[in-house]
Write a structure and sequence with these properties.
The chain is mainly α. The longest helix is centred in the N-terminal third of the chain and has 28 residues.
Length: 221
């Protein structure tokens, strides 16, 4: 069993909770409220910019030139995807540039992005990658699962198709291969830190969807 396969197996129950979350069940059924999807889109756009920064930091720490290219390209794709949200989904769902600019990060989004940036800056290259992996891998698997369950006429089908695409899954497999390689060369203490970073990010993935479903905001605002 590879290192990443072990991570997936160890966190299978958490992944299943993510699949079973009402946000994802209703997204597949096409019954998710527009208000919740709009809330999610705004936070996802905020998230992608921070994720791109964290990927860029990981690229700078790469142990091989291939890793520099791989994660610099991933950072570029994250920011490009954020721009696509503005030009596509946000426009389609009536979210203006002003709506986006004046909506702060929710506590869940703030926690997640702060963790990713801190983990990428302060930890070693292997641990930085492990913290970034759930956004790649869990999104790919959730997207594939929702795609198989998506109902005809689903108003969110375009989003579903994005994360179920073979292009996205090919990129995810490449990231997994890189992480398996660096894990094989790491000592046991580093692999333990990698597993901890992965788990923390996977939990924050669940919290991100839960916050969108609950229309989360700061309790003091």
């Amino acid at each position: 069993m590879s290192f990443c396969q072990g991570l997936w197996q160890a966190n299978q129950a958490l992944y299943q909770r993510t699949l079973d979350h009402p946000f994802n069940r209703e997204l597949a059924a096409g019954s998710l409220s527009v208000e919740r999807f709009r809330h999610y889109m705004i936070q996802d756009a905020h998230y992608l910019v921070a994720y791109g920064r964290a990927l860029a930091v990981a690229a700078a720490k790469a142990d091989q030139a291939e890793g520099v290219v791989q994660f610099a390209n991933a950072a570029n794709e994250a920011v490009v995807e954020e721009r696509k949200l503005h030009d596509g989904f946000m426009r389609d769902f009536g979210i203006s540039a002003q709506d986006f600019a004046t909506t702060p990060l929710t506590p869940a989004c703030h926690h997640y992005t702060s963790f990713l940036l801190a983990n990428s800056w302060s930890e070693s290259y292997p641990v930085a990658l492990a913290g970034l992996l759930p956004c790649f891998w869990i999104y790919a698997e959730v997207g594939r699962d929702i795609h198989t369950r998506s109902q005809p006429g689903n108003p969110y089908q375009a989003w579903v198709d994005t994360y179920a695409s073979e292009e996205f899954h090919t990129a995810v497999r490449a990231v997994i291969a890189t992480i398996d390689r660096v894990a094989d060369a790491a000592d046991s203490a580093t692999r333990t830190r990698m597993a901890e970073a992965y788990r923390y990010s996977a939990e924050l993935e669940w919290m991100f969807w839960d916050s969108a479903y609950e229309l989360g905001t700061w309790p003091t605002r």
